[in-house]
Amino acid sequence: MERTKIVRWVVGFLALGIAVMGILFYKSILSYLLISGIIAYLISPLINYAQKFHIPRALSILIVYLIIIGLIIILINVIIPQIKIQAEEAGKFFKQIVKDPEAFSLKSFGLEGLSNFIDRMQTRFTFIDVDEYTRVLGERFVGAINAIPQIILNSLSGIFNFLAFLIVIPFVCFFLLKDEQQLMKTFFGWIPNRYFEFSIYLFEKIEDSFGRYLRSILLETIIVTILSYIGLLILGIPYALTLSIIIGLTNPIKFFGPFIGFVPVILVILFSPVPDVMVIYAILMSIIVQQIDSNILFPSLVGKGLGMHPLWVLLTVIAGGYAFGILGLILAVPAVFLIKTVVQVCATSLKQFEII
Amino acid sequence: MKLKEYFTPKTDKVEEEKDLIKFLSEVELFENLTRNERRNLSQHFYERKYKEDEIVFKKGYPNVVMYIVKEGELQTYLDSTEGENLKTIKPRDYFGEVGLFLEEERTATIVASKDSVLLGISKRDMNRLIDEFPRAGSKILRKLAAVLCTHLIRTNKNLASKRDELIDLKKRLEDSKSQLQELKNSQEVDKEKS
Asked: Can you give the residue range of the structural domain that contains B92?
């Protein structure tokens, strides 16, 4: 081997070693970086918009921070206690139901014919205890529902108690936002001339489809939450705020989201003093909100849409749920969409740029 | 250390920015912009260094970036780098501006004939700047329109002179054709006589 080649290998190994050590050293910070990156990405259009009116970036970031801090204070003082009270009440409520042994018995419907039918079936097929099955099923279901408010509360307090979250992320976000252009220049400065145009092309295409999708999901969630809150308030259904937040948060889940988000609403109506007919009105309300969402909000925010076949989206959601649970349900479609966009752009442009 | 010094950013970075803003004022396209507008614009430029014989882009690549030449010299080729070069691009010239308006592919190949420094601005950033700062945007667009019109007029003139040449050639061809015919006729007459 030539001498220069050996030197090259040594330098390469050293660089690799430094890179690995750097990643190991900053490993614990990576998740913060990722989260602040996403937050900065979601805020950056606001800052760019403010720049239009010759407001310095640092100032507009500080203004946005003040607004966010104000919202957090409002959240902590007004909304969180309310959610807590409502969640606790709901918990107690469900516990009470569980205590009532006959709550899920089919006989409790008070239909004589049905009860007689069940009794007859049991005398004929002694090995099937229909009543017992429905009761166990119902109790398990309520048990699972019962656990949800506690899980939500735990994770909420877990996030808010995260001291580092409150201190590190705003700092990182601030610099990411302030020096956005500088960081972009540095990043693209690393790319060799041969791939410079391609990388910019790829970045812009991804931003145009995926970035827009990500930003609009946030707006969609907020708008759907507000709409459902208004609807539930009009219908006079209890725990409206908690229920509408659940509807909003489950809304980004394709296909299943609206149904999952709507289960608690139906349960609350059925088990509360509100007349059961309200279920129909609530379903109507949900249909209206969903129609507004899918026919007005989604097309105007996301534009062309995902360009994925509904069947594919459905399978993606299910697979995401299997693999990563609730988080998978929410994130599977955006993740697959991101990969699809990258592959699609590469497939058309790699050849055009004569890279392959 | 004085307090003021502490709060002013590093001097070389400021110098660099100043140089860039000054350089942009010398580019024809941006000469009407105010200093503030030029500073805004300057934040979106990527500085790229090209070695001699390095290809900037080839014909058929997508239109992504518009370049302004800061230093060096580049050559334009219509087909491949083997063919004759169309135009030499010098400092303060720009290329790739057609991409701002048309979705089409690159129509020529650009190769650096000397070590060059280019300032690239992405087509999307440029269009966004024009949208977000309409006053500056209209100045840039008007200048660009003027430049393109000059090109058009020059091309038209070229075309007209080429057409005149063509007509002249055609006339001469017809003249020589009729002369040939006359010659043939006289030859035939001669043959018959003999």
From this structure: 45-132
